[in-house]
Design a protein that fits this description.
The structure is a single chain. A hairpin with a 6-residue loop joins strand 2 and strand 3. Helix content is 27%, strand content 33%. The longest helix has 22 residues. Helix 2 runs antiparallel to helix 4. It is α+β, with helices and mostly antiparallel strands. It folds into 3 domains: 114 residues, Killer Toxin P4, Chain A, CATH 3.30.430; 121 residues, Killer Toxin P4, Chain A (2-Layer Sandwich); 108 residues, Phosphorylase Kinase, domain 1.
Length: 369
């Protein structure tokens, strides 16, 4: 190699390295922050000192915390104890995670200068703290929802909604069984376009709580008539897009691809059985597509006994093995009365039902449109 060629090669390497370094130092992409101003602290208080100590711990965490993308801890003593959590997106490298957390630590006291409870969302990470115990606890306050401005064409809304709903529910079940409480999936939309989905919980949540949070996040998007959307809770988040917005994770349980929904009748079941002592929990995600003029239901049935202490096992259910009489569901929900309404998610309303045996269920009834 000539001297000029060698110099050019070295210059190119140095230039690429500088680009890579500068890219890493870009500010994290800000999304939203939430400051609960009902409870505040003074600058010279013990709480303030504990909070600064906790944030300092996060910005100088051991490398493992950034590699795992999560840390949760507490600082001080009651009544001035501070609880804190950071969570990085599961597909990001440890140096990107660290950069986002350090940046968030410096920003959160600027955005929320004297509140005892705050959460700060970036594209790459989330940071939050509170005077209440937020560790291993599902929190729904401080949510953030963002939907893509582009609509799905009207003649494809139903098919796209079926695909997004079934895919997101499928990946939610996979995430709750992942030790990192994180999973991504790609599904076929058209011959030229795919659907990309990412879901994540804070790893300190129990599997059951993670799934509950993810389903709430999915339902909270109301409808899937946009080409993309996301809903962030402090303890979990879900997102879908028609482009790949995440990196291929280094650690995967299994590469998965959800099939596109077929016309006519298509029923698929996912069963997780939770056992322990004399109690059990059965979570069944049912995806039903029926022709026009028929009642449509997508139901997530949760049968919960008392005092659950659990180890999960997964088993497939033979298609068509679950039979639920509509009149029984109608009676359990008192004919879908308003007092039993739990909320409204994608494509319909969710109702609480109680069968004569005492079993409680959550039923989503799809709108006729």
């Amino acid at each position: 190699m000539s001297g000029y060629a060698c110099f050019g090669y070295l210059f190119l390497l140095a230039f690429l390295a500088s680009l890579r370094s500068s890219a890493k130092q870009q500010e994290p992409y800000y999304l939203y922050h939430y400051c609960l101003n009902t409870t505040t602290y003074s600058k010279n208080s013990i709480y303030s000192s504990n909070l600064k100590s906790l944030l300092s711990t996060f910005s100088s965490s051991v490398p493992f915390s950034y590699t795992s993308g999560f840390d949760g801890t507490a600082e001080g003593q009651i009544p001035d104890m501070v609880f804190g959590i950071f969570l990085c997106r599961g597909d990001l490298l440890s140096d990107v995670c660290r950069h986002c957390v350090v940046f968030a630590v410096n920003e959160i006291l600027i955005r929320c200068p004297n509140e005892k409870e705050a959460v700060l969302y970036y594209e790459e990470c989330m940071l939050r703290y509170s005077h209440q115990n937020i560790l291993s606890t599902v929190i729904y306050s401080g949510r953030y929802i963002l939907m893509n401005a582009t609509n799905i064409s009207s003649n494809q809304v139903d098919r796209f909604g079926d695909l997004v709903s079934s895919t997101m529910n499928q990946v939610a079940v996979k995430a709750e069984n992942n030790s990192r409480k994180f999973y991504t999936i790609k599904a076929n939309w058209t011959t030229l376009q795919s659907l990309y989905v990412l879901v994540q919980c804070t790893p300190d949540l129990r599997r059951q709580d993670c799934l509950t949070c993810l389903l709430s996040s999915i339902n909270g998007m109301m409808s899937f008539n946009k080409t993309g959307g996301r809903l962030l809770y402090p303890t979990c988040n879900t997102r879908y897009e028609l482009y790949q917005f995440y990196n291929e994770p280094d650690i995967r349980i299994q590469e998965d691809s959800a099939p596109s929904p077929r016309p006519g009748l298509n029923i698929r079941f996912l069963l997780i059985i939770e056992k322990g002592g004399n109690s059990s929990v059965i979570i069944i995600a049912v995806v039903v597509t029926i022709t026009a003029m028929s009642l449509l239901f997508i139901g997530v049935f949760i049968v919960r006994a008392r005092n659950t202490r659990t180890v999960y096992e997964t088993e497939p259910i033979v298609e068509g093995s679950l039979q639920l009489d509509f009149k029984a569901i109608e009676a359990a929900t008192d004919k879908f009365s308003l007092r039993n309404k739990l909320g409204q998610g994608g494509f319909g309303e969710v109702y609480k039902g109680t069968f004569p045996s005492g079993v409680q269920v959550a039923v989503k009834r799809l709108s006729k449109t």
